[in-house]
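quick q for whoever's on today - can somebody do inverse folding on this one?? i tried earlier but teh output was garbage lol. tokens:
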């Protein structure tokens, strides 16, 4: 297959590019490098460009005969989406339509979309399955939900087939140590804890210890980035086999509390990690766990790194490598 990976220089996208190369695919990465890193693009051609550039997209699709497109290029910071919603609707919605328009103009009809659990909003029940009501509570989640609805309409009107993969908490790093998280600023719990363990930051803040959970801290579903990429590979194979469009929730299926994550990070690193006690954050539900039964049954997906310690071990190896 000849695949275009948009956002392939970012955290999840770069891991996906590595997997596609292993599978024998020809890969082209399109990335504006606003948050990605050119040196993470392994075994692929990198085109530096922005989805806002319609002429560039037309030239790119004219020069290549893509079989499918994978989209990892969304803006993803919830807080920023509240303070600057225009950026999120422009990049996540308008620019995605630019990409879909280019695909249709060049008769590319298979699309894998990196979506998010944020489309569900405050959970009404847990674990969260695909039928859960969609009621996003911030512009980030709304922008992703808009794209999912757009894709449904594009399927009905134009025959563009898509699979939306809704992540919960992506975590970990390439087991071979070549890739990992390099966000700036970093907002994810595990790399923040490991940066504290390695001395790059003073500590971390726990936002609330009075939730209705066993230890009082929030519970989240952490999924290894390599397992995420495997789900994308299975999804693209499903489309290649002639499947219709679909949506799948991707998670470990096991919830881990903030305190459990702290304890495992301390164990794996062998370091103490300073913790500051903070107040609850608005919009933080006590429990967010995915029901991935549909992905397991319809995609044949099975997470390989379902235990938290493996996820943290790979992230710690990457954190140490970054510090070399």
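ok took a stab at it. sequence:
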């Amino acid at each position: 297959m000849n695949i275009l990976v948009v956002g392939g220089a970012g955290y999840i996208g770069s891991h996906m590019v590595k997997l596609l190369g292993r599978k024998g695919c020809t890969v082209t990465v399109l990335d504006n490098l606003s948050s990605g890193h050119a040196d993470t693009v392994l075994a692929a051609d990198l085109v530096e460009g922005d989805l806002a550039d319609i002429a560039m997209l037309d030239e790119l699709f004219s020069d290549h005969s893509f079989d499918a497109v994978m989209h990892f290029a969304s803006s993803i910071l919830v807080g920023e989406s509240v303070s600057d919603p225009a950026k999120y609707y422009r990049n996540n919605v308008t620019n995605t339509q630019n990409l879909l328009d280019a695909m249709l103009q060049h008769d590319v009809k298979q699309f894998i979309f990196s979506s998010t659990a944020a489309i569900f909003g405050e959970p009404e029940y847990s674990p969260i399955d695909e039928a859960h009501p969609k009621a996003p509570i911030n512009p980030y989640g709304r922008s992703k939900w808009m794209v999912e609805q757009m894709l449904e309409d594009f399927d009905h009107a134009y025959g563009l087939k898509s699979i939306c993969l809704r992540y919960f908490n992506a975590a970990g790093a390439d087991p071979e140590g070549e890739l990992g998280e390099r966000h700036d600023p970093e907002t994810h719990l595990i790399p923040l804890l490991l940066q504290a363990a390695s001395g790059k930051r003073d500590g971390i803040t726990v936002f609330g210890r009075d939730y209705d959970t066993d230890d009082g801290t929030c519970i989240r579903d952490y999924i290894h980035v390599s397992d995420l990429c495997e789900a994308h590979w299975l999804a693209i194979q499903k489309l290649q086999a002639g499947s219709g469009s679909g949506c799948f929730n991707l998670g470990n299926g096991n919830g881990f509390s903030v305190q459990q994550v702290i304890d495992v990070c301390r164990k794996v690193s062998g370091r103490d990690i300073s913790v500051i006690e903070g107040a609850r954050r608005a919009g933080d539900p006590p429990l967010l766990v995915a029901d991935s039964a549909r992905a397991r049954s319809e995609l044949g997906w099975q997470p390989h790194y379902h235990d938290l310690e493996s996820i943290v071990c790979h992230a710690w190896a990457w954190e140490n490598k970054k510090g070399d």
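fwiw The radius of gyration is 19 Å. also The CA atoms of residues 172 and 315 lie 5 Å apart. so keep that in mind when u check it
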